[in-house]
Specification:
Layout lengths: L1 H9 L9 E3 L4 E3 L3 E14 L6 E11 L2 E8 L9 H7 L6 E9 L2 E8 L19 H18 L1
C-alpha cells in the first residue's frame, strides 16, 4: 500500500510501534522489538476505555531504520506515574533497548531490556609476538646441564 504510506509521510504521521495486536478476545503479542530511542515528550492522548483525554508520554523510536511513535499513559489507574514511564526514563536518547510484551497471570506488561554497548575486543597482531626458536630452548637446557656438571 504505497499510496497510504505516502499519504502518512506527507501528513507527517509516523507509524506506531505495536508490541501487541488486539483481537476479539485478547491481545496477540508481536515478540521482541529492538528499538533506538530518539526522543520523548509529554502530550495528550485518548483513553481507549473511557474516551477521555489523558496525559501521555510520546516516544519517537527507530526500528530497523524506520521511525515510529510509541505512546504510554503517564499515570496508572491509581494516579501514580506509570511503571513503564519510570523504566523508559532509564534509557538515554540514542540508546537501544528491547521492548517485549509479556504476560503475568491475566495481565500483560512490557519488559524493557537495555542493550549494553558492546566493548571492542582488542585484536592480536601476530607480528608482535616473539617467536622462540626451538634451538634456543635446547641450548639453554644444554648450558644448564653443563653448569650443573661443572659445579660438581
Amino acid at each position: 500500500m504505497k499510496s497510504s504510506k505516502n499519504i502518512l509521510k506527507v501528513a507527517n504521521i509516523m507509524p506506531r510501534l505495536r508490541l501487541g495486536n488486539k483481537t476479539e478476545n485478547r491481545v496477540q503479542r508481536t515478540g521482541p522489538h529492538r528499538v533506538k530511542f530518539l526522543m520523548d515528550k509529554e502530550a495528550t492522548g485518548i483513553d481507549t476505555i473511557t474516551g477521555k483525554e489523558i496525559p501521555v508520554v510520546a516516544y519517537m523510536v527507530e526500528e530497523n531504520g524506520e521511525k515510529k511513535s510509541y505512546r504510554v499513559p503517564k499515570l496508572n489507574k491509581s494516579g501514580e506515574i506509570n511503571y513503564l514511564v519510570i523504566r523508559l526514563a532509564e534509557i538515554e536518547e540514542g540508546q537501544e533497548a528491547i521492548l517485549e510484551m509479556k504476560r503475568s497471570g491475566i495481565k500483560n506488561y512490557v519488559d524493557v531490556i537495555p542493550v549494553k554497548l558492546e566493548t571492542s575486543v582488542p585484536t592480536v597482531d601476530y607480528d608482535d609476538i616473539p617467536i622462540i626458536d626451538e634451538n634456543e630452548n635446547e641450548q639453554t637446557t644444554d648450558s644448564k646441564a653443563e653448569n650443573v656438571e661443572s659445579e660438581k
